[in-house]
Amino acid sequence: MKFSESMQKLDRRYIYIVLAIAVILPLVFPIGFKTYSTTPVEDLYRHIDAIAGRDDMAIIMDFTHDPGVMPELYPMDLAILRHCFERNIKVFTISFLPQGAAIIQLALSEVKEDYPDIEANIDYCNFGFKPWGLKLPIMLGMGDDIAKAVETNSEGLKLENLPIMQDIKNYDNIQVVVEISGSSMGQFWVTYARAKFGVDVAVGLTAVMAADVYPLLQTGQFIGSLGGLKGAAEYEQLVDIFAMNGQEFSKKKARNMKWVEQAYKNIPEKARLYKYNKARIGMDAQAIVHVLIILFIILGNIGYFLEQREQKKKYMK
Amino acid sequence: MTETIGIWIAAFLTLCMFSFLYKDNPFYKFAEHLFVGVSMGYYIPYTFYNAFLPYAYEPLFLRKDYILIIPFIIGILYWFRFSSKFSWISRYPIAFSMGMVGMGVPMSMHATVLVQMRTMMLPLNNINIILIFIGTISILLYFFFSKAHEGVYGKFTSIGIWFMMVGFGASFGYTVMARISLLIGRIQFLLGDWLGFIK
């Protein structure tokens, strides 16, 4: 069998084996490829960081995603929560999917392990699961009064009685709504909450959806976005080099790789935990697999064109 | 102990799913059906306890908030879908839901059309805005089929195809990244949580 023919008839299971090896090796022996941050991620980080230490401002994290997309989105959940807990930023968490409520619990408990001083209903408040059908009344109602629109937290406590709500009334006290999902849920926040009340919205999305948000980023309807595992890896890095070092965000520093490497040396031990580096370690495997896929595409195309030429020659004869 | 059992079950089911890469087999079928059943089994009681009880039953029957009878009855009408004779009644709550969709039309128009158009009307003073302007106009004209795509007009609309191809390429690249990320997530679970090779 000729090379061109073998390229076209290669059993796909060989490709799966090569891909599996390309994923497994970098995960067991991390390469440590550098992570370069991009503007949409930096914008979100800076926007959230701007309310560090303020009692009258908070962010809302909407976890409307299920476990199926956790490999991409869960590192984002952890990175944003860690940023907020480290920099004393108030967080509200909510999900319009039942499965999302369990993910909120998991993420909060994982990050809280390393922040024993952070207290529920004082530093953060979990609104828990709210039915999908109540999405619009809640989104619109929060523009007037968050406590009235959401009513209770995940433990069934009335929001109006909670200490975290003392200085927080409505979207005027919300710095940004971060929608983390594998769907176009972020669009709902733009359509209802942003269009009517002007609240800033950002998204953390699966990579499949990431290309669709660029028109909304360009218009400023999304103030930032985290696209797939790469976006999560970038946010993890920004939290490590700035928040964990007690530094203010600086775009110039974030893009100076020498400064970044130096900043990594000073981060506390808890930032080196595997759970806070999952996206960056995953990006090693991602990079290797991308190179492999590019090679496969090139080889496949070479095989295709060679076969076309052979057939043309046969036809001419 | 319970966590360890959970990890072993998750690892077994992951391997069952991966076995499909070799070929379709009973292990894959078992895991697939189990997934559908468990998802529904989780969803139904969770929704009952976290949606029906706190938002319908408790306010209506315990707190006597009788105004909720109206949405309650509208919701109940959906159940007529199961009757071939009275299924027409279920169209009423559907009609009501469609009315709710109508509420979003003006806001959607603003968010997805007007704001996007406004950014097309900025001064063409940098290369990005010029590219976006040319891309938008050429793609819009490409989908205008009342004039034959010939001559200069045809050449201009073919620029639209190039812009779309770049867009499709970006989407494909992101899709590859998404699928590989899911694989990475599962391998991280197998090597880390299950086998303990990654700490």
How is this structure best described in words?
The complex is a heterodimer of chains A (317) and B (199). Chain A is α/β, with parallel strands linked by helices. Chain A folds into 2 domains: 3-28 and 283-316; 39-276, Rossmann fold (3-Layer(aba) Sandwich), CATH 3.40.50. Chain A has 14 helices and 6 strands. In chain A, helix 4 (70-86) packs across helix 5 (98-112) and helix 11 runs antiparallel to helix 14. The longest helix of chain A is centred in the C-terminal third of the chain and has 39 residues, at 278-316. Chain A is elongated, with a radius of gyration of 23 Å. Chain A starts with a helix and ends with a helix. Chain B has 199 residues and is mostly helical. Chain B has a domain at 122-199. Chain B is 76% helix and 0% strand. In chain B, helix 1 (2-18) packs across helix 6 and helix 5 (127-142) crosses helix 6 (151-194). Chains A and B meet through helix 2, helix 4, helix 5, helix 8 and helix 9 of A and helix 2, helix 4 and helix 6 of B.
Structural class of chain B: mainly alpha
Beta-strand segment tally of chain B = 0
* Outline of chain A: elongated
N-C termini distance of chain A: 21 Å
Biggest sheet strand order of chain A reads: 3-2-1-4-5-6
Helix content of chain A: 40-55%
Mean pLDDT of chain B: 91
Hey, roughly how much beta strand do the residues of chain A contain?
Answer: 5-15%
Helical content band of chain B: over 70%
Helix/strand order of chain A: HHHEHEHEHHEHEHHEHHHH
- Total E-strand runs of chain A: 6
Distance between the termini of chain B: 19 Å
Low-confidence stretches of chain B: none
Rg over C-alpha atoms of chain B, rounded to the nearest angstrom: 27 Å
Provide a concise account of the structure shown.
The complex is a heterodimer of chains A (317) and B (199). Chain A has 317 residues and is of the alpha/beta class.
